[in-house]
Design goal:
There is one protein chain. By secondary structure, the chain is an alpha/beta fold. It has two domains: about 180 residues, P-loop containing nucleotide triphosphate hydrolases (Rossmann fold), CATH 3.40.50; about 180 residues, Nucleotidyltransferase, domain 5 (2-Layer Sandwich). About 35% of the residues lie in helices and about 20% in strands. It is built from 17 helices and 15 strands. The strands form two sheets. The protein has an eight-stranded mixed sheet with strand order 3-4-5-2-6-7-1-8. Strands 9-15-12-11-10-13-14 form a seven-stranded mixed sheet, sandwiched between helices. Helix 1 packs parallel to helix 2 and helix 2 packs across helix 3. About 40% of the residues are buried. It binds adenosine-5'-diphosphate and magnesium ion. Adenosine-5'-diphosphate binds next to helix 2.
Length: about 400
C-alpha cells in the first residue's frame, strides 16, 4: 500500500474503507489543510469498491479537477497506473474506469442526468451550482453509493452549509458525515509556511481561510486590510520610478463605465511595491456629460503619455472600448474578472502592504477602497458579492491584483 503522511484525524478518514463511510462525506475547513489530498487514498480505495453505477470525479471544471486533483494523484499512482483523455474526461485509474466532469462545463447537468453514479469525488463543492450537486445526488441510486466532497468554507447561508452540513436529520440517519480541518491537521506544512499563510489574511478573511469558519461577509470589504501605511505623498515617491529602469512594469487597469464612472489607474511596479500614482476618474453623472468610447480612448492615450510603455488591462466585456484601443494601437489585455477571488487577492496585497496609493492624486480610489462593501441582501440568499455602488476604483484595482500580482510575491 502507498504511504501517505497524514495527521491522525485525516488518516482516520483516508484509510477507512468506503463500506464504512456514510453516503455523503464532506471535508471542510481551512486552506492547505489537506482536504483535497484526503481524496487520493479514497480514490484508490474506490477503484476496488464494488458498487453499481459509474465512478466520477467532479470539480468546477475539468481543468480545475486536472490541476487540483489529478496531477498529484497521477504522481502518486505512477504513469503505468492511469490513462486520461483530457477532452472526454475518461480516466482509467488502477484498472478502474472513471469519468471527470466539470460542474460548470457546458452541458454537464444534462450529461449527468443520464448517468447512474456509484462513487463521486467532488473537489471544492461549494463552488459548484447547487442544481448540479442536487442532480448528482439524485443519480446516486445504487446501494452503497458514496459521495466524497471537499470545500473551503463560504457564507453560513450557503446552500451546502444550510441544507447539508447543518441538517441534523441527515446526520441522525447517518446519511451525512463531515470533518473540519485546519492547517494543524496537515503535518506536511513547515511552520514557516503556515506563518506566511497566516500573514496573508486578516479579519473576516482570516476567520474563513485560516480558521476555516463559515462566517458571513459583511460591511466594508477591506476594513481589516486597509491602513494609513498604504498611502504616500508625492514627495515620497521613489526617485526615477516613472522613467525607464525605475520600474519593472507599468500597468493601467481600466474600469469601464459610460453612465457609471470610467476609471484608469496608473500603477508602477518597482519589483517590490506597487505604486498607484494617478487616477483618471470621469463620472458622467456628476460632470453632466457622457463621453463616447472614442473620447475615452483619446483620454486614455493622453493618460498613458508618449512613452506608450503601459499595459492596459480591462474588463473583458468592454468590447466597444477594446475596439477603440485597438484602433489607436494601445496595448491591452483582458482582466481576470473572478470577483471573489480577486477580492481575496486584493486583501492579501493590502495585508502584506505591497501597495502604495498616492494621497493627493488617487483620492476617489482611496475613498472607494474603504467604502467598497458586501451586498447584505445577497448575503441573506447565501450569495456573496460586493455592492455595485462606488466600486469603480476598487474594481480597477481588483482587476489589476487578480490579473497581475503573482502568488509567489504575496507569499514571499
Ligand atoms: N498526505 C500528504 N502527503 C504529502 N503532502 C501532503 C499530504 N497532504 C497534504 N499535503 C500537502 O499539503 C498541501 C495542501 O493540501 P491540500 O489537500 O491541497 O489542501 P486543501 O485542499 O485543504 O487546500 C498539498 O499541496 C500538499 O503539498
Ligand atoms: Mg483543495
Amino acid at each position: 500500500m502507498l504511504r501517505f503522511n497524514f495527521g491522525p484525524r485525516v488518516e482516520r478518514f483516508a484509510v477507512r474503507p468506503p463500506e464504512k463511510d456514510c453516503p455523503i462525506n464532506i471535508l471542510e475547513g481551512a486552506v492547505r489543510s489537506g482536504k483535497t489530498w484526503c481524496l487520493h487514498p479514497k480514490a484508490i480505495y474506490c477503484c476496488d469498491y464494488d458498487v453499481g453505477g459509474r465512478k466520477v470525479i467532479t470539480g468546477v471544471s475539468k481543468q480545475s479537477v486536472y490541476n487540483n486533483v489529478l496531477t498529484d494523484l497521477f504522481d502518486i499512482v505512477g504513469p503505468r497506473n492511469y490513462s486520461y483523455n483530457r477532452n472526454t474526461g475518461q480516466l482509467r485509474l488502477c484498472g478502474s474506469e472513471w469519468l471527470v466532469i466539470g460542474a460548470k462545463d457546458e452541458g454537464s447537468e444534462r450529461y449527468i442526468r443520464g448517468l447512474t453514479v456509484g462513487v463521486a469525488l467532488c473537489d471544492e463543492v461549494s463552488l459548484m451550482p447547487q442544481s448540479f450537486f442536487q442532480m448528482l445526488l439524485s443519480r446516486m441510486s445504487p446501494e452503497g453509493a458514496r459521495l466524497y466532497a471537499t470545500t473551503n468554507p463560504d457564507s453560513p447561508y450557503h446552500w451546502l452549509k444550510a441544507e447539508y452540513l447543518d441538517n441534523p436529520e441527515l446526520r441522525a440517519k447517518r446519511i451525512l458525515w463531515s470533518e473540519h480541518f485546519t492547517m494543524a491537521d496537515n503535518p506536511n506544512l513547515v511552520p514557516e509556511f503556515v506563518e506566511s499563510q497566516k500573514r496573508l489574511y486578516t479579519g473576516f478573511f482570516y476567520k474563513r481561510f485560516i480558521e476555516g469558519l463559515w462566517v458571513v461577509a459583511e460591511g466594508a470589504i477591506y476594513k481589516d486590510s486597509w491602513s494609513e501605511g498604504l498611502l504616500y505623498d508625492p514627495k515620497d515617491e521613489p526617485l526615477g520610478l516613472r522613467v525607464r529602469g525605475g520600474h519593472v512594469q507599468r500597468i493601467i487597469p481600466v474600469d469601464y463605465g459610460t453612465t457609471n464612472p470610467m476609471v484608469f489607474l496608473d500603477i508602477y511596479d518597482d519589483g517590490k511595491l506597487y505604486w498607484i500614482t494617478r487616477e483618471y476618474y470621469w463620472d458622467s453623472a456628476k460632470q453632466l456629460r457622457q463621453k463616447t468610447d472614442a473620447e475615452y480612448a483619446d483620454d486614455l492615450a493622453e493618460f498613458i503619455g508618449p512613452q506608450r510603455n503601459a499595459k492596459v488591462i480591462i474588463d473583458p466585456s468592454a468590447a466597444s472600448f477594446k475596439a477603440e484601443m485597438t484602433k489607436r494601437g494601445i496595448w491591452h489585455a483582458d482582466a481576470d474578472n473572478d470577483v471573489n477571488e480577486g477580492i481575496r487577492i486584493v486583501s492579501m496585497v493590502l495585508n502584506q502592504r505591497m501597495a502604495r496609493f498616492c494621497r493627493q492624486t488617487t483620492q476617489n480610489t482611496i475613498q472607494e477602497m474603504q467604502t467598497y462593501a458586501w451586498d447584505a441582501k445577497a448575503a441573506q440568499r447565501g450569495e456573496e458579492k460586493p455592492l455595485k455602488i462606488h466600486d469603480h476604483g476598487a474594481d480597477a484595482f481588483r482587476y489589476f491584483a487578480k490579473t497581475e500580482v503573482p502568488y509567489w510575491r504575496l507569499a514571499a
